[in-house]
Amino acid sequence: MIVNSVSLFYFLLCRVPLSVPVWYTICMSRECAADDAERISSPASQFDKIAFLYDELMSGVPYHSWVAYVHRILERFDCRPRTVLDLCCGTGSVGLLLAGEGYRVAGVDVSPAMVSLAKRRAEEAGLAVDYFVQDASSLHLGRKFDLIISLFDSLNYILESSALQEAFYRASEHLEPGGLLVFDMNTELALAVGLFDQSNLGSKSSLIYNWRSSYDLAARICRVQMDFACRQGAVEERIEVVHYQRAYDLEEIVDMLSSAGLHTLAVYHAYTLRKATGRSDRVFYIARK
Ligand SMILES: C[S@@+](CC[C@H](N)C(=O)[O-])C[C@H]1O[C@@H](n2cnc3c(N)ncnc32)[C@H](O)[C@@H]1O
Prior knowledge:
Helix content: 25-40%
CATH topology: Rossmann fold
Bound molecules: S-adenosylmethionine
Oligomer: single chain
CATH superfamily: Vaccinia Virus protein VP39
Low-confidence stretches: 3-38
CATH class: Alpha Beta
Distance between the termini: 28 Å
Mean pLDDT: 88
């Protein structure tokens, strides 16, 4: 996740090719995330810790535009879903927009705290969305969907390729024949060039944050040290959390999808209907069962 005002910047950035070689070289770090292997916390705990900050951090994220983009994709592939699974739903932003449009939506996420906020938001909005706390790699909901979406680089949090393969198997099992799986991932380029590095230090906001990332080229893992300070009157709470994302090649993902019985229809440069290139820092995969 790349957040706040930076999100908008990032959204725009996805449309503008980066000066890749320069950034790539500058930001490549020898710091070895693989050394941390035993200490890498689960995505659930990574997000549980910051769930209460998440929606504030995301306040600049153009979720409406993302949903509009998903609609363009659905139109392009003549998909008219009635049922949607928001995989790695977080606090529910995408699923709730779709539920508000009349789709029958379910959401699943591995973080209990994120799901609990999603449930609360659905209740407050008077929307009927079924939420589940489950890991994408062992998903078992006992029902199928016309469309599964997973937005905002959620699948990059799955650090083992075997676990990601399992997640695709499970997604395939939960799709109706002809159903679509649509998800976005950060490419290695995004993880290596330090797009996670951001802060709002010096701002008057009650939430101050400072994020620093390093990329381990061998392990293909980006480690992001996230430090937050939340001020409430004279009281300041400090929170530190480390997030990890893994880079996967386009071909690797397409092979995994294929093994899971999913045919890749397109790999797009994010938020466009243009083919992804080596300069794409975020890509959207569209696969049909
Ligand atoms: C960057 S957030 C995106 C949330 C939401 N999709 C959005 O657009 O706001 C990534 C989410 O993926 C979830 N996640 C990471 N690994 C997961 C896994 N293996 N199974 C289910 N959820 C996972 C995290 O708990 C977190 O809520």
